[in-house]
Known about the structure:
There is one protein chain. The chain is an alpha/beta fold. It has two domains: about 1-185 and about 360-410, 4-Layer Sandwich (Metallo-beta-lactamase, Chain A), CATH 3.60.15; about 195-355, Metallo-hydrolase/oxidoreductase (Rossmann fold, 3-Layer(aba) Sandwich), CATH 3.40.50. It contains eleven helices and 20 strands. The strands form three sheets. The chain has a seven-stranded mixed beta sheet. A hairpin with a 6-residue loop joins strand 8 (about 120-130) and strand 9. Helix 4 packs across helix 5. The protein is globular and about 65 Å long. Bound molecules: zinc ion. Zinc ion (ZN) binds near residues 67, 70 and 131.
Amino acid sequence: xxxxxxxxxxxxxxxxxxIGTAQTRILFDAGTNLPSLDGKEDKDLIEIEGxxxxxxxxxxxxxxxxxxxxxxxxxxxxxxxPIFSGEETHRILDVISDFTDSPRPGIHFHFKNCQPIQLxxxxxxxxxxxxSAVDAYMFLIQxxxxxxxxxxxxxxAEHIPAQIRQLxxxxxxxxxxxxxxxxxxxxxxNNTPQNEKQVGQRACQLMMKxxxxxxxxxxxxxxxxxxxxxxxxxxxxRTVCEDLFLTVVRTGREENTLRxxxxxxxxxxxxxxxxxxxxxxxxxxxLGAESLAKHPGKKVIFVRTSMLPFLMNxxxxxxxxxxxxxxxxxxxxxxxxxxxxxxxxCDAYGIDVSYLHCSGHAYRSVIQELxxxxxxxxxxxIHCESQDRRQFEExxxxxxxxxxxxxxxx
Length: 410
Ligand SMILES: [Zn+2]
């Protein structure tokens, strides 16, 4: 069995991991580069022969989760190469493409947690993991008598070693390809919440402190975070409000939620979004900014950067309240223009801003423990900043510093 990482050995995101045998070739994750914070160079122009151009040379593609840095390249994969993902990942990607009016990703097959898939002489087993995306997986890859575990992105992994041991049935793990977003020890700060439970506790305190509306800025697909905010709101007697996009992404999971529409949608110009709008509108579920503002009781409203006109209308109906924005995503995004505009907006309207977030990636101690318990023969760092790769060497005596595009025989 060979491993060839086309991209991802020395950067966070853009994962493209080619693992195969003399007979079979599988790509794990087809990610695009993370967008630059200044908004420039958004197009990922990477070309891989047999994947994005030429004759198809990959037999299968497996997507670990729906974050773009793991699946953004899917639309450029040559037709004729079948793509696997989790079912919920596929659904979410379809919804996002409908709302952004882009082509739906051509995903062909769904895998199931811990159910091995035999593809010629290779066997792939997806193992569900905790990450800031629902339906995220690690992959155990077995062929030629070798066993490789690719972690994808993960935050905690308590149940993983027992599952791996069971799947290996007494065999050893040859290679662990481990993500290292937070491998640097100092990335774990004691001042910020370490898990979703702590985020929820702090959210409760803040929601109680404010008399007006609490707006929450977080990823619409960070299901766990959204659930935690729902629980916090319930605990302090606030009503949660979700817009049409969030409603569709979450398939209206929670009851006792007010639904609203923040963007204009038309049957002619945006027919795919309009279909969702019509579905909920007919059920009389969707409020406008004014009726939402006038709805009695305290609220928690999930917002996105594209909602400034909606927020203006909403705030015009309740001008004297003391409101809060919970900024519940990575601090680095503050450098991007849309976030800056939202924060400037908050400033102009006198909305306080509180940072409340925990990372969706494992901290060093968690990575270290996974390596220790699994005891792989070799360790390959991936998905970490290039200056942090050396940090992995302290965690394993046989740490392979692979370079993008170099093939290695397991
Ligand atoms: Zn991710």
